[in-house]
Amino acid sequence: QVQLVESGGGLVQTGGSLRLSCEGSGMRFNLNDMGWYRQGPGQQRELVASITVGGTLVYADSVKGRFTISKNNFRNTLYLQMNSLKPDDTAVYYCNEVPALKIESHEYWGQGTQVTVSS
User: Fold this and answer.
1) Residues 50-69: pLDDT tens digits?
2) Cα(51)–Cα(72) distance, integer angstroms
3) The 3-state secondary structure of the chain, one letter per residue
């Protein structure tokens, strides 16, 4: 059974840092391109950082230079180090394959982890 469990979110002041983690089961992170997505209030979910099977890192312009994605294939865990956080980074953060994993034609998403950046 596939499961993605995100953790590490919280409330932080502008300029602060957080490190998100995502543990996966029923799937192998070393066999898939993986990414961190986020969905802010009233916004669509967007991909903010991804890491390919070959290790290529790609970032959205809005987080480039501030966020770093990494993974531990042995632990099947994905990380997102977020520095210099801004109020615009406030969102629920999710990890998933890129593109998102589908199970019986429906996208599968974990519960996400809330990040709130206060001004």
Assistant:
1) 999 999 999 999 999 999 99
2) 11
3) CCEEEEECCEEEECCCCEEEEEEEECCCHHHCCEEEEEECCCCCCEEEEEECCCCCEEECCCCCCCEEEEEECCCCEEEEEECCCCHHHCEEEEEEECCCCEECCEECCCCCEEEEEEC
Sign of the Cα pseudo-torsion (6, 48, 81, 33, in order)? positive
Residues 54 and 56: their CA atoms lie apart, in Å, by 6
Do the Cβ atoms of 67 and 81 come closer than 8 Å?
yes
**Residue-level pLDDT at 27:** 87
Q: Using DSSP bridges, classify how beta strands 57-59 and 46-51 pair: parallel, antiparallel or unpaired.
A: antiparallel
Segment 66-82 mean pLDDT: 97
Which position has the token pair 């998933």? 96
